[in-house]
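Form 7-S
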Amino acid sequence: MKPEYDLAKLKSRKNPYVSKLKRPVTMRLSEDVVAYFKGMADEAGVPYQSLINLYLRDCLATSRKVKIDWPQSR
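Output:
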């Protein structure tokens, strides 16, 4: 290594991309849901997990909420 590349003089700094990293999670999804996103992903030419992430990110950006109407029990 060249003397001008003395790494001992380098100052450490935080990784600016750490907040952009993805966190692996385990999810149970219905087979038809996975097939739907895989089909869309094939058409778009992206991995299906990335497509699901983009969809969820869009939900986050637009503050989309799920409306669930459970049937009333008698």
